[in-house]
């Protein structure tokens, strides 16, 4: 959403909105507040609420009360020009680093037909919704130079962001699904930044990158002398580090079963037990998990706890693979070219042929693969304009179509070319030759012979 659109929405409302910086200087006020205060917007912008309060334009200043309390305030405020009373709520809106950025107040006229508590609850709900919108605008503005910015205009991508924004308004566990490299960690961070926990820690751990024997101590910590080799000072776990914030469990499908039951306990009871301790600790954390695996299928095969899956799957959001939203590729190309040109002080551009080829590529590594490729092209290209010849072989190569059999009289050559392309495709998707062999449903030894036969040099995509 553009700033102009956001302010137009606030201007159309019957409730008053007043925004200041952290010094109490007015930065924006909507039309309703201007009418109630009987002042033009330009008469208010740039003025201190402390001075306006002294001038008895209103009393008390809710913004001042928020700043003094360093937290939300709800109070009855009087506008002295009309002697009208309003229920006014004030909140602090922070930036993505958790630092106070704005103070937002929202006021509604006191209605004698409803109780104060009912009206207060309604005002608080409205203010919560619009402060989240303001926070969303802040996050998008401050992340505009981020190489990992969530970018997309496709219906699939917009739906994903809308779901994430709804999820951010409630304090429940979340499951994010999607292929490797599609940005699950970015979406988790986005949800955190839009939530009420946005100014608290966002702690993440990749469950597949840490040995099973160490994962429990990383998550829950341990007391001193809990086991042989343990630190004499003990260890603070990530759960404790994430207190009042968000704990992001990436690749949760890789978590061993004996730890899954402890994560389930953390989600259900908000308690956990560090290694070597006998007293349960209480945790105030939100859990966001992510996976590129089918957890439902794994639970049916007893490889993942079904009770944990159902607990996580109450609120879920899926990120579509890049090949399923090709209209987003051009936007991402523009963003990454600009980003890496700025980073490396270059002025590279992509030729039309390169753009077309990249838009038709299936991107098994999704946005991460695209970002890494553009960075490599920006750095390694010999000319300012990047050409097809600068692209890696696996992207330049065109997969043969069946009609080529007619053009090519050698059936053996055609079969070999299809087999080679099929193997390359598996190697691009897999992390290891063992995984690639599993995808192809052939022994690893057979795959290694075929790699040698076709002289495939793809070490950047697979390991032994």
From TrEMBL:
Statement: the UniProt record of this protein carries the keyword Nucleotide-binding: yes
InterPro entries per UniProt: AAA+_ATPase, AAA_lid_NorR, Homeodomain-like_sf, HTH_Fis, P-loop_NTPase, PAS, PAS-like_dom_sf, PAS_fold
SMART domains to which the protein is assigned, alphabetical: AAA, PAS
Domain spans labelled PAS: 2-52
UniProt superkingdom: Bacteria
Keyword flag Methyltransferase: no
Gene3D superfamilies in UniProt: 1.10.8.60, Homeodomain-like, P-loop containing nucleotide triphosphate hydrolases, PAS domain
The Sigma-54 factor interaction domain, residue ranges: 150-379
Keywords: ATP-binding, DNA-binding, Nucleotide-binding, Transcription, Transcription regulation
UniProt xrefs under PANTHER family: C4-DICARBOXYLATE TRANSPORT TRANSCRIPTIONAL REGULATORY PROTEIN DCTD (PTHR32071:SF57), TRANSCRIPTIONAL REGULATORY PROTEIN (PTHR32071)
Name of the protein this chain belongs to: Sigma 54-interacting transcriptional regulator
Organism: Bacillus kandeliae
């Amino acid at each position: 959403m553009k700033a102009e659109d956001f302010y137009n929405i606030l201007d159309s409302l019957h409730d008053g909105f007043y925004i200041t910086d952290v010094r109490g200087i007015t930065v924006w006020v909507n039309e309703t507040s201007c009418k109630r205060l009987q002042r033009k917007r330009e008469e208010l912008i740039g003025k201190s609420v402390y001075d306006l309060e002294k001038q008895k334009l209103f009393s008390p200043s809710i913004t001042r009360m928020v700043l003094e309390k360093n937290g939300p305030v709800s109070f009855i405020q009087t506008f002295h020009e009309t002697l009208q009373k309003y229920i006014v709520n004030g909140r602090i809106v922070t930036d993505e680093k958790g630092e106070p950025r704005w103070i937002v107040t929202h006021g509604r006229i006191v209605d004698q037909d409803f109780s104060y508590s009912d009206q207060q609850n309604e005002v608080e709900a409205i203010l919560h919704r619009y402060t989240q919108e303001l926070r969303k605008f802040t996050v998008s503005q401050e992340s505009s130079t981020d190489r990992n910015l969530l970018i997309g205009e496709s219906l699939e991508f917009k739906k994903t962001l809308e779901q994430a924004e709804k999820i951010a308004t409630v304090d429940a566990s979340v499951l994010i699904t999607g292929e490797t490299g599609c940005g699950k960690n970015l979406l988790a961070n986005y949800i955190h930044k839009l939530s009420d926990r946005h100014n608290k820690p966002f702690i993440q751990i990749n469950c597949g990158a840490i040995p099973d024997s160490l994962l429990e101590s990383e998550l829950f910590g341990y007391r001193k002398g809990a086991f042989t080799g343990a630190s004499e000072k003990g260890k603070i776990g990530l759960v404790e580090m994430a207190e009042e914030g968000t704990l992001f469990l990436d690749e949760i499908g890789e978590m061993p079963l004996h730890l899954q039951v402890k994560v389930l306990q953390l989600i259900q009871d908000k308690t956990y037990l560090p290694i070597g301790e006998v007293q349960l600790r209480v945790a105030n954390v939100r859990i966001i998990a992510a996976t590129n695996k089918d957890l439902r299928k794994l639970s049916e095969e007893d490889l993942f706890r079904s009770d944990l899956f159902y607990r996580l799957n109450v609120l879920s959001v899926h990120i579509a693979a890049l090949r399923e939203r090709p209209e987003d590729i051009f936007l991402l190309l523009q963003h990454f070219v600009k980003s890496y040109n700025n980073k490396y002080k270059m002025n590279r551009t992509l030729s039309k042929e390169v753009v077309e080829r990249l838009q038709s590529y299936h991107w098994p590594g999704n946005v991460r693969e695209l970002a890494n490729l553009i960075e490599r092209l920006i750095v390694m290209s010999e000319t300012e304009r990047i050409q097809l010849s600068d692209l890696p072989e696996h992207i330049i190569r065109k997969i043969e179509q069946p009609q080529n059999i007619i053009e090519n009289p050698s059936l053996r050559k055609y079969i070999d070319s299809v087999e080679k392309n099929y193997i390359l495709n598996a190697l691009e998707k897999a992390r290891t030759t063992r995984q690639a062999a599993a995808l192809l449903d052939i022994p690893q030894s057979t795959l290694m012979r075929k790699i040698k036969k076709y002289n495939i040099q793809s070490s950047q995509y697979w390991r032994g």
